[in-house]
Amino acid sequence: MWKYIVKRILLSVLILLCVTFIIYTLLRCLPSSFVESMAMTLSQGQGSKSYDEWIAQLNAQYGLDIGIVPGYIRWLGQFLRGEFGDSWRYVMPVVDKFKEVIGVSVVMGGISFILELVIAIPLGIIAATKQYSKTDYVITASALVGISLPTFFFATLLKLIFSSGLGWFDLYGLVGRDYAQLDTMGKFLDMANHLVLPIATLVIVSIGSLMRYTRTNMLEVLNADYIRTARAKGLPEKKVIYHHAFRNTLIPLVTIIGGSLPGLFSGALITETLFSIPGIGFTSYQAMTRGDIPFSMFYLTFIAVLTLAGNLISDIMYAVVDPRVRIS
Q: Which of 51, 176, 283, 311 is most buried when burial is the number of CB atoms within 10 A of its CB?
């Protein structure tokens, strides 16, 4: 197992190098950037240098006057030394800005992920054990609705009903106008109130696919020969379903759960943007639209590392949930 893990880590490092080079190339090829915006602003000052002169000066200052390959090698050397640079958009070290906003996204992603597992997996099992019943049809229809709803549409619908219509929640932001005057518990409740609709959006648009996946795999397991044998021996139905069948259903579910690791830390870009939640997703969106190469490179590299780690965890978990699976 350890030999396999080391080999996978080395392969992941090679993949990461390829991915970061592609990301760097794409960011360098963006049609607009912070440099152009800043040069335009500076050139409009009285007695200032021309736009082209500012472009040349800023490109040299930020290392954009050299080719993509030398630029990537320079960035990689700085990255390996832990030097991630300053964000052009937020005018502060990239790591400091990342630490400032990652907490909100982790809380949202973690709560959403737990609720997704708690809701989707049991409903998928119930739908499988009651195949072709009214319960199965209701659960399946609900799952399809969740899968079909675009995030931006469902978030807007929630805001229209619960914010504009009923007035239960604020439309935007993480805190209310009176946040500074509240005590500790009041601040906690105020932030929790603002996160209800974003978390509800993430959960409802996500549970459908996991629910359907659980149902499909559970049905496949329930039709296996060893399940019929267990029932023929007179084992209680609950033990057949939750001890024998469910454990084997976990094997394909591990892939889904392991692949969800990036989502816990990467932030929900669309949801955070729609609700103006200052998490890592919204912050990275603002950075990318402004051509902020240092922050965008750090964020996208962070997501790539999480994705590779999630895939490795999924492979290792196969041997944990099923003793028959061993990696030689």
A: 283
What angle is formed at CA 168 by the lines to CA 164 and CA 171, rounded to 5 degrees?
50
The pLDDT confidence band at residue 18, using thresholds 50, 70 and 90, is: very high
> 92-93 and 86-87: which strand pairing?
antiparallel
Distances (CA, A) of 225 to 4, 231, 247: 33, 10, 15
Q: Rounded CA gap, 76 and 20, in Å?
A: 9
As given in the structure block, the two tokens for residue 190 are 């105020």
pTM for the predicted model, two decimal places: 0.79
Query: What CATH number is associated with residue 229?
Result: 1.10.3720.10
Residue 37 makes CB contacts below 8 A (sequence gap 6+) with: 290, 291
C-alpha span between 21 and 181 (Å, rounded):
48
In tens, the pLDDT along 154-197 reads 888 888 888 888 878 888 778 777 777 778 888 888 888 888 88
Q: Do 213 and 274 fall into the same domain?
A: yes
Q: Is residue 77 within 8 Å of 20, Cβ to Cβ?
A: no
Specify the amino acid at residue 257.
I
Residues 43 and 133 in one domain: no
